[in-house]
Prior knowledge:
Residues 119-251 form the PurE domain. This is Nickel pincer cofactor biosynthesis protein LarB. One of its GO terms (molecular function) is hydrolase activity. By secondary structure, the protein is of the alpha/beta class. The chain folds into two domains: 31-110, no CATH class; 121-247, Rossmann fold (3-Layer(aba) Sandwich). 37% of the residues lie in helices and 19% in strands. The chain has eleven helices and eleven strands. It has helices at 3-14, 20-27, 44-48, 61-73, 86-91, 131-143, 160-163, 166-171, 185-190, 213-220, 235-246, and strands at residues 32-35, 38-41, 54-55, 78-82, 98-101, 106-110, 120-125, 147-151, 174-179, 197-201, 227-229. Strand 10 (197-201), helix 10 (213-220) and strand 11 (227-229) form a beta-alpha-beta unit. The longest helix has 13 residues, at 61-73.
Amino acid sequence: MEQHEVRQLLQKVAAGQIDVEQALLGLKMAPFEEIDIASLDHHRGIRQGASEIIYGAGKSPEQIDKIAHSLWNSGQKTILITRMSQEAAEYFQRDIPFTYFAEARVGLVGQKIAPKHEGYILVATGGTSDIPVAEEAALTAEIMGNRVERLYDVGVAGIHRLLAHVEKIMGARVIIAIAGMEGALASVIGGLADCPVIAVPTSVGYGTALGGVTALLSMLNSCASGVSVVNIDNGFGAGYQANLINNMESGK
């Protein structure tokens, strides 16, 4: 159950539409459920505003299917599955609504949450090779109820491509800047934007890119004050954090 669902339930009690016992029944589900392969946190949506998300890497197709169905049957109607393999997607039982986004390796059970307001998250990449990580970030944010704009292949090797979109950059509530190689995109965007910038280093690059470590260190040492950094290839973490920022009470 999400926070807004609890609020609606309490509003019905206040309006006399349901009694206290009915409301109590709606909240009575145990805070977690133990199945043989996992302990499912059903009250995470109440505590944090976002329900439990399934990390698919390292789980078998059967485990992912079972966890997702258990969450769905408990009443969670938007379930995000990250790092989901094609094999797991093909195995997934389609008796509940399911969509697979292959490029991002993201699965969605149910529907995306409708955006709560007009503010948007901008997801920008240095190159086309960064798009799989960018799509993980963008889809995470969209599924969690945000408007997302995409700005791909605007890296510093051709900085005029980025500068052609300054209006879109300045209009964003949050920007996710995703780049490999030397990771310079985040600093450049951070010097243009008046909103928080979340930098995502990717493992894209030649030898001394060191699987994303060079971009990570570059982003951590950014001279742009509004830049924060998540882990290498962590599009999900960036999308989740951007969702939290975009849905704070104050904003554009």
